[in-house]
Amino acid sequence: MEGDSSLLEEATAGPKLEVGEEGGDLENNTLHQPLLKRNRALSSNPLALVGAKVSHIESLDYEINENELFKHDWRSRSKFQVLQYIFFKWTLALLVGLLTGLIATFINLAVENIAGYKILAVVRFIENKRYLTGLAYFTGANILLTLFAAVLCVCFAPTAAGPGIPEVKAYLNGVDTPNMFGVTTLIVKIFGSIGAVSAGLDLGKEGPLVHIGCCIASLLAQGGPDDYRLKWRWLRHFNNDRDRRDIITCGASSGVCAAFRSPVGGVLFALEEVATWWRSALLWRTFFSTAVVVVILRAFIEICNSGKCGLFGKGGLIMFDVSDVVVTYHVMDAIPITIVGILGGILGSLYNYLLHKVLVVYNLINQKGRIHKLLLALTVSVFTSVCLYGLPFLAKCQPCHPSAREICPTNTGSGNFKQFNCPDGHYNDLATLLFTTNDDAVRNIFSSNTPEEFQTASLLIFFVLYCILGLVTFGIAVPSGLFLPIILMGSAYGRLLGIAMRSYTKIDQGLYAVLGAASLMAGSMRMTVSLCVIFLELTNNLLLLPITMIVLLVSKTVGDSFNPSIYEIILDLKGLPFLDANPEPWMRNLTVGELADAKPPVVTLCGVEKVSRIVEVLKNTTHNAFPVVDERVVPPMGLATGSTELHGLILRAHLAQVLKKKWFLTEKRRTEDWEVREKFDWVELAERDGTMEEVAVTRDEMEMYVDLHPLTNTTPYTVMESMSVAKAMVLFRQVGLRHMLIVPRYHEAGVSFCSVTHPLHNYI
């Protein structure tokens, strides 16, 4: 049942899956094609829910392969070597945090200065009443920046487009998303994010920072790019799926921390949103990585506050410090807070639904070629530029209040009162939100003790515009994040609700904006704990904890009743398989034994197998592992003679290594321990290497034998055939399995064992 079975594949998508089709080229299934075809008619047969067309995406071996080589290597390690291994794990975590913090600072400062010089140049045209020239300059500069980012993604690293979080989530769930963590992807992600965000597009650098942190972690774990890897022995210990997964989890946490300066929030984001498998040691290392990021960011914040970071003194680091606001609320404030949560859930699920439709259309456009991808990105850039420049002219100029705590008006640098086209002593509230960088827009709309700063009409225009931009911008061929667009939309309707409720509540309008942003993020992304901590660390006010928790819980509950989270929708559109945490009800009524009966018999190998048989199996199957079974063995006392022994499971990659190294025997016999250690090393076997195309076997070698016992994992996870599919799915996900062996309750001569692969891990 191994490679041909799809035991729970995408089971969480609902009971509407057809039985897998026969035939077809597995290698022609692109990431944009769904792995399963859905039938509108519900099937009453639970076995019809199983099976699908297999994708060429390969899954990952997170399970420790406990063969004789591993056991010998582990027993032979001294205490110093064990401590050295642990030390290098923490060193990699340190380097991940350090490099992520430095790159995040570089991106922030580059964006703030590029966008700042662009805005200052346009301000000069506005001050001289040369409005059309200012529009042309503003639009032209944004087109060039967008073109720079789009060309990088389209021509050099297509996988760098988008946020990257869904792909990271799929990887940590056990699917090896191709070309996602290479050095080219990292470079394009960095400079593409700078270009796209500087162009004023409605996207953030928070999602790309998560992807950047994961790229850094992956490159460090494998010793550098593929063509220039370091071959240091101790570095090779981390070039396996299990350790690489842990390091990439540290990278994801560091990316969130770098985006929001939220170390605990970064750890909880990885735990709640992207990581499938977790343990206490990994918790400490991720926290250590985020702590390093915070130290780096704090150091550069101090430098930027002294005016050494260019035009914008705050350096573009998102900080919404409302610690000076006295938060007072009463029992009756629970009503407007609940309304904020309900609206966030409804609007978040509506945004997910509409964005899904837009992405389907964009996918059709992008499939037509590179030119269409570039034209789509440039069209969105022109539309965004015209709106950001033209709409502030619709707003009425407001007189500066004498009690304003900031300079009013201002046109240079960041500020809460942009003069734009207004006379002296007046400011344009809509320009304060639109004619600035996205980070400054968030700081301005989150500003506290400014109840009269923004007009209702300006906030409505801002909200509608960013709803439109949030739908049409995401999906173009540039690095883009969803955090900031959702924060801007949510803060706008939150502040509008604060204005409507100001006669009934004493909560500051800036805090309503914070709650609105949190509710929309929970309604769209369906995160609660990590978002709560992120917003608490951003606002630096623990008094917000109760009302923030209420808003997040309400909005997530409302959103879950309509559709999945935005990241799950993107995973489905990309055709990336993902095993959900909760089994479906039909899985309780189906056993793994019944599932095995619906598929062809499992392909097994003998403990000492002929080379020709191994070559035949590798050529004619796509299974990633094969049970090793010995017939007619001499059993322990008390068992019948001629018993069948299930020795374990051998990986396809290890069989390819055997053929590549020509480890053949002229006679059918068991080998000694020293023989296998002369040819193979456990670290080498843990690395992903070796394909059939690299192996050439002569006709004489076909008649030789291979002893598979030393390379076989003797402790695979094995379950009884009576186990329910639901219980098996939970075991797969929580332990991080790729393969599971099903053994019958009664075993007779001629009855074979069954082997089931991970539902997501049929991609060999």
Automatic annotation (TrEMBL):
Localization in the cell: Membrane
Gene3D superfamilies: CBS-domain (3.10.580.10), Clc chloride channel (1.10.3080.10)
Keywords: CBS domain, Chloride, Chloride channel, Ion channel, Ion transport, Membrane, Repeat, Transmembrane, Transmembrane helix, Transport
PANTHER family according to UniProt: CHLORIDE CHANNEL PROTEIN CLC FAMILY MEMBER, CHLORIDE CHANNEL PROTEIN CLC-A
Region annotation Disordered: where it falls in the sequence: 1-25
Pfam families xref list: Voltage_CLC
Mode of membrane association: Multi-pass membrane protein
Family matches, as InterPro entries: CBS_dom_sf (IPR046342), Cl-channel/antiporter (IPR051280), Cl-channel_core (IPR014743), Cl_channel_pln (IPR002251), ClC (IPR001807)
Protein name: Chloride channel protein
SUPFAM superfamilies in the record: CBS-domain pair (SSF54631), Clc chloride channel (SSF81340)
Organism of derivation: Salix suchowensis
Transmembrane segments: 87-111, 132-160, 180-201, 282-301, 334-354, 374-395, 459-489, 510-536, 542-559
